Amino acid sequence: MEDRVKLMKALLSRHRWPQARRWRNPIPFPETFDGDTDR
User: Fold this and answer.
1) pLDDT tens by residue, 5-38
2) What is the CB neighbour count within 10 angstroms for residue 28?
3) Is 20 left (phi over 0), alpha (psi -120 to 50) or beta?
Protein backbone atom coordinates (compact mmCIF):
# COMPACT_ATOMS: atom_id res chain seq x y z
CA MET A 1 0.00 0.00 0.00
CA GLU A 2 2.83 2.41 0.79
CA ASP A 3 4.33 1.98 -2.68
CA ARG A 4 0.97 2.65 -4.28
CA VAL A 5 0.51 5.81 -2.21
CA LYS A 6 3.94 7.05 -3.27
CA LEU A 7 3.11 6.27 -6.89
CA MET A 8 -0.21 8.09 -6.66
CA LYS A 9 1.46 11.14 -5.11
CA ALA A 10 4.09 11.15 -7.84
CA LEU A 11 1.46 10.92 -10.58
CA LEU A 12 -0.72 13.58 -8.99
CA SER A 13 2.21 15.95 -8.50
CA ARG A 14 3.24 15.46 -12.15
CA HIS A 15 -0.13 15.69 -13.85
CA ARG A 16 -1.97 17.84 -11.33
CA TRP A 17 -2.60 20.89 -13.53
CA PRO A 18 -2.94 19.23 -16.98
CA GLN A 19 -5.32 16.62 -15.60
CA ALA A 20 -7.22 19.16 -13.51
CA ARG A 21 -8.20 20.95 -16.70
CA ARG A 22 -9.71 17.76 -18.09
CA TRP A 23 -11.53 16.79 -14.92
CA ARG A 24 -14.43 18.64 -13.34
CA ASN A 25 -12.77 18.62 -9.91
CA PRO A 26 -10.05 21.27 -9.44
CA ILE A 27 -7.95 18.87 -7.38
CA PRO A 28 -7.65 15.27 -8.61
CA PHE A 29 -8.15 12.83 -5.74
CA PRO A 30 -7.08 9.17 -5.88
CA GLU A 31 -10.74 8.20 -6.35
CA THR A 32 -11.15 10.42 -9.39
CA PHE A 33 -7.75 9.36 -10.72
CA ASP A 34 -8.76 5.70 -10.70
CA GLY A 35 -12.39 6.00 -11.75
CA ASP A 36 -12.89 9.14 -13.85
CA THR A 37 -9.99 8.70 -16.27
CA ASP A 38 -12.48 7.60 -18.95
CA ARG A 39 -14.15 11.00 -18.76
Assistant:
1) 888 887 777 655 555 555 565 565 666 555 555 5
2) 20
3) alpha
